[in-house]
Amino acid sequence: MGKIEWAMWANEQALASGLILLTGGIVGVAGQFRGWQFAAYAVAAGVFVCLLEYPRSKRSKGTSVERTGQYCFTVCVKSFGPLTRNYYVRAFLHAAICVPGGFMLATVLGCVCLGIASIIYFVAAIRGEHWEPILPRKESRMPVAESIKNPPQNPPPRPPAETRRKRVDDLEDAAYDNPISVTDN
Amino acid sequence: MGNFAANEGLSIFVILVWLGINAFLFVFFYMKYLGDSWFYTRELLGHALSWARAPAGCLNFNCMLILLPVCRNLLSFLRGSIQYCSRTAARQLDRNITFHKLVAYMIAFHTAVHIIAHLFNFEYFMDAQLNRNSSLLPFVLSEIGNGDNASFLNPIRSNETNPTIVMFTTIAGLTGVAITLALILIITSSMEVIRRSYFEVFWYTHHLFIIFFIGLVLHGFGRIVRGQTEKSMNVSNPLVCADHFEDWGKNDSFCPVPKFAGNPPMTWKYVVGPMILYVCERIVRLYRSHQKVVITKVVMHPSKTLELQMKKKGFHMEVGQYVFIQCPSVSRLEWHPFTLTSAPEEDYFSAHIRIVGDWTQALYEACGGDKTEPQEAWQLPKLAIDGPFGTASEDVFRYEVVMLVGAGIGVTPFASILKSVWYKHIQNNQEVFTKKIYFYWLCPETQAFEWFADLLQSLEGQMTEKGMTDFLSYNIYLTRWKETEAAHIRVHHEAENDPITGLKQKTLYGKPNWDNEFTNIATKHPGTKVGVFLCGPPQLGKSLEKQCLSHSEANVKFIFNKENF
Lengths: 185, 565
What we know:
The structure holds two protein chains of two kinds.
Chain A: H1 6-30, H2 36-53, H3 71-78, H4 82-85, H5 87-98, H6 105-126, H7 161-164
Chain B: H1 2-32, H2 39-45, H3 48-66, H4 72-83, H5 87-92, H6 96-130, H7 137-143, H8 163-169, H9 171-189, H10 192-197, H11 199-206, H12 209-218, E1 226-228, H13 230-235, H14 238-241, E2 260-262, H15 267-290, E3 293-301, E4 305-312, E5 322-326, E6 336-339, E7 349-354, H16 358-366, E8 384-389, E9 401-407, H17 412-427, E10 436-443, H18 450-466, E11 472-478, H19 483-491, E12 508-509, H20 514-524, E13 529-535, H21 538-551, E14 557-563
Parallel strand pairs in B: 9-10, 9-13, 10-11, 11-12, 13-14
Antiparallel strand pairs in B: 1-2, 3-4, 4-7, 5-6, 5-8
Helix pairs in contact in B: 1-3, 3-6, 3-15, 6-7, 8-9, 9-11, 9-12, 17-18, 20-21
């Protein structure tokens, strides 16, 4: 729970839009509709959007849940640096990509959905969110224990002063004979 | 195998029946549009017509079903009535949210098929208008109805348009776009990641279903799917006349020009019932929420748990039920579910609320949790309560032997049960059907014990007094512990009471060995039905379910019930 990270919803919406754009494009091309060139574009755009949106970002607060097998996509997306890190860039990119989809009925739905995703990304960008890759944590090796190298500095723990006091009346049964008299403090 | 049937049989049966009805409707509507009155329509569209109408029929059915599992009050009422007939049937109603999701997936699937088929339909309609050649039947068919604009077949009336424009200028097209967008937004905001982390986004976006249902009802009002009228069929049979389309309406031909009309809208007949039920459900919720609720006591427990003790006129609860709480001063629109931790025998009802997010934090501050001096009664915030709603925990007393497993804050429904047990046995001396309770509490940190440990301590004391120490056997498992705690425990190992909880029963560490536990219980109680109740994370639920299935033999049956939020 916590404050809303709009980018998480934008990511789901954009991924769904990519799939819808792709499906509409495939239908347009397979059915050889009028304006099938827009459909062919939509296939390419849909695939691109899906690849870009598949890796989930790391959340700024809380645990992040990866999508299955997203590691290779994370590495690819990460390599573009600020272009993929910044959500303003993503918002404008999605807005630009979605426009040609509006020219053909089969891809109109994908266009509108991607437009909505672009708006949500814009909101996320205004609120200062950015994309962080989810990378596996490197296991830090345990440092070699100090105690192996250094000898103990302190004497071993002793029973409390009560039992340590020199028992002058019973020297045979005393735990040990203290050379120095002990007072309990 | 039989225990699998006992645990899952009814669910599987319900799902098979539902899938069967879907399949039947699909095939039925597909075949319907292969009939003769649609002959000319199929001249334009081919099988794409049937591919569009079949999922439409299924969509009507599923949209009727989707509202029903979320009528909480109706379900609670049904559950109460069915319980007397069959415990299994009542348990089925606990899976309402799962069914709601299944129906939603089916709606999404059918919507996809429906839209793809209509993309082809629009394309074919446009083709018929663009190939303006009188020797082509599709063009001749498209020209019909140009005069009176009523008996036409092709909804695209001219060639100076394109499918996109047509979509935005027809009722069916506009409503179709609106409801599909609403559906997509609802689905993307309902993904588990969003739902678990940002409940508000999920909840508010889900209310787009209002637009969905309004659009759905209006979707067919344009009567855009057109077939030959019956009158026209009598005088101009397509099987005979189709080949002579060039002579239609001419003086010497026996085939007059066929006339077409649209289907009357059908969807409203399917969804009006559930819509009315849902409106009633919301009205009931609203009414119940306006009843005055008084906070009688606020207790701040360690580990960020807030206890609210409340009273409301006419409030009656059973063990393990939950309520929705709203605090208008915190948020006017948010209702959050909390299990009741008080027993029905007490004169107040209480909820233990863990402070995890914005709403709970604000509620804590509104109740004066961060102030040091006690609050006056009039300073406490106004609350609204909706409920109580029943869940699986109500069934506990119907089993002779019961295993209760609670993880962390999931112990709350069992707090209510244990308290009720205490009241029933010790104070009223009522005869209870339940003879033995095995209680398991899995907790990651020690601080969470305090408020519940008090309850267990008093129960322990009371049971020793009455000589009934055998009735309740509880095991507390500390699943995560740190070095400092381990040192403290080591030093006090010999003490009579547990150093963490102060109870006679020692706290155990790590996770329970369920295999051993189930085997022990099975050997101690042969020939009985053991109810297993869990309130906790899904992985624990899965492993317990597996244990139930594997340990249920001929003489002892483990029945698994899960509470979910």
